[in-house]
Structures are given as C-alpha cells and as structure tokens.
Design a protein that fits this description.
mainly beta, eight-stranded antiparallel barrel, nine-stranded antiparallel sheet, globular, 37% strand
C-alpha cells in the first residue's frame, strides 16, 4: 500500500501479494483462500484488454468478504473463482456483479490468481471504525471511493506465524510496514493535489480511464520513504512517476513563505539495499530502496500561493538551470 504507479497517481490504497507461480517457467496459477470467516457479499467479473503474456483479453475477478458490518477484505486480480463459491455463483457474465451472500470459512478455496491476469492479488483491508488522518479534504476522495479514508493495515489483522512470514517478504522496511497513503500537511507542499476544477479524486471522467489526469502527488516513496517522489497525472499526455534528483527540498517544509522551488526529475530506480542490484518488480529481492536514476528527465516548478493552493509548471527535457521561471503554461492545483 502507498505506491504510485501509472494511473495510480496518488498513493495506492491497496497492497499487492505476488506469487512464485506467476514468474515460474512455465507460469503457474496459485490458489487463493479466504483469509477469514465471513459473508462474501459481492463478486465481480471484469474483462480487460491486453493481459500479461500478450493475452488479448483477460478476466479480472474480484471478491468482497464481510467479516462484520464495518470490517471487510477485498481481493481483485483473480483469474477465476473456485470451490464452493464458484458453485454458488455459477457463471458471472462479462463486466457484471453478483451478490451471493455466501458464507465462507477461513481457509476455504475461493479462486485462483496468476497470468494472464496478474502476478498476484490486490488486497484491500477496510475498517469503517478507523478514519485515517493525512487528507486535508477527505470529501475530495470519498465522493468517489467511500473506503479511501478507512484503509487498515493488513499486518495489524494478521495472526502469527503468518504475520511474520509475510513481513519477512515485505518490500518496505519502514513503519508502517503495510504502507501509508495520507501525507497532507495543511499549508505545506507535501501530499496530494488536484488540478483546479477537475473534480478532486474522481476527476472529470469519474473513475473511468484517465480520471487521474488532474492528480498530483509530492510524497515519500511508497517502498523507501527516504526518497521524495513526484507523481503527475498528465506529464506530456500520460501519467508518470519520478524521483527527485538530490532529494531536496523536503516538501514537508515547503510553505507559502518559501516561494518558488525547483525539482529536477529522474526515473525511479528500484534496487536491493543488500545486493545493490536493480529490482525487476517480480522476483523477490531483500530490503527494497529507490533513487533517481542518472540523467535529468525534466524540471518542475512549484509555488504555494496560499494554504491550500499550488502553482505548478513542468519543463520536460530541461534541467533546473535552464528554467527561468513560470510562464503561461503554469497550472493551479488545490485541496
């Protein structure tokens, strides 16, 4: 939880559990079991384009397990449903949802994950009795995703010995180990921003392709919070993530009184702190860290113009020394 990737411009509200089978030769699908007893309230089958291993289409199946009225776990990126759940729901039509109210036991087989869908499952842990801090304007998020401010830590709800087994393979060393998504500090640059008049998190194309176009995040890296990342919803027409070269200034210290700040952007390079080798994001590597790869990709200017107002302009292909100041292409953000 807490990474930024592609259209996930702001820190991601779910985590990923990858499986060995997905990177085996040949790839193997992996069984998925219910992590707790409860009621499976919702199953969804989504047919998507351009899967892994050059698949033209693939199924992205999802399941919601309600443990109580306020606590639930969701999985997505299942290749198919299985076991008693599959028998209960029958065939789910393309891009449809069913509400089976299926009583599931802890440890019961519910499906499989793997290629061509994904390298593992996406995991949401939601606790309505928990409200996260770190969002200056929570309504900007909950208007689109009501669970966003109620994301819980997987490891806080995992029993031993499984908890220690998962932690031993976790990419992130920093606490909280499951990750963090709320970094906003009122009057400071750090955190999430939304381009003025684009509808906050939901965007102008609510929760459809490109909804993230007006998103911006200036946050610690999800795997290595010692590295500053800048995640931009529209960098030359596409969502992109960058590491700040030189890792300064700290956005948690940048205020309206600071004036204009310049950040040089580099590609995010992920590597193992133990081996020093770059990480491919698939096979396990110990103690993940990130840094800016060599070479300046561009420069971004930022200026807090009020407590919750930000002026920003991107200068692709230019170093900080080549940028004199804002011009007519500057854009305003809010939160």
């Amino acid at each position: 939880m807490g990474l930024e990737a592609g259209g996930h411009v702001t820190p991601i509200d779910h985590g990923y559990i990858y499986t060995k089978g997905a990177v085996a030769t040949p790839p193997q699908q992996t069984a998925v079991f219910a992590p707790l007893a409860g009621n499976i309230s919702t199953v969804t089958r989504t047919v998507r384009l351009n899967g892994q291993n050059h698949a033209a289409t693939y199924d992205d199946d999802a399941v919601t397990i309600e443990a109580t009225c306020t606590f639930r776990v969701r999985f997505s990126n299942l290749v198919r449903f299985a076991g008693g759940l599959a028998d209960a729901i029958g065939e789910v039509p393309d891009n449809e949802t069913k509400n089976p109210n299926y009583a599931v036991k802890a440890g019961e087989l519910i499906g499989y994950t793997g290629l061509p869908t994904a390298y593992g499952i996406d995991v949401w842990v939601e606790d309505d009795d928990l409200t996260l801090t770190g969002f200056i304007n929570p309504a900007q998020y909950t208007a689109a995703e009501v669970w966003k401010t109620h994301m819980a830590d997987l490891f806080d709800h995992t029993q031993e010995p499984l908890r220690s087994q998962l932690l031993a393979l976790n990419e992130r060393d920093a606490a909280p180990r499951w990750g963090k998504i709320g970094y906003d500090i009122d009057g400071r640059l750090v955190g999430n921003w939304f381009r003025v008049s684009t509808g906050g998190y939901r965007g102008l194309n609510p929760m459809q392709e490109g909804y993230w176009d007006g998103h911006l995040a200036v946050v610690p890296d999800g795997n290595d919070p010692g590295q500053i990342d800048i995640s931009i919803g529209n960098y030359q027409g596409t969502a992109r993530q960058f590491a700040v070269i030189g890792n300064s200034p700290d956005p948690s210290t940048v205020a309206e009184s600071t004036g204009v700040v310049r950040y040089e952007l580099g590609y995010v390079e992920t590597y193992s702190a133990v081996t020093g080798q770059r990480w491919d994001g698939k096979a396990y590597a110990p103690h993940i860290r990130t840094r800016a790869a060599p070479g300046v990709i561009g420069t971004v200017l930022m200026q807090m113009t009020a407590t919750r107002s930000l002026k920003m302009e991107i200068f692709p292909g230019k170093s900080a020394s080549q940028v004199a100041g804002f011009d007519s292409n500057a854009v305003m953000f809010e939160r």
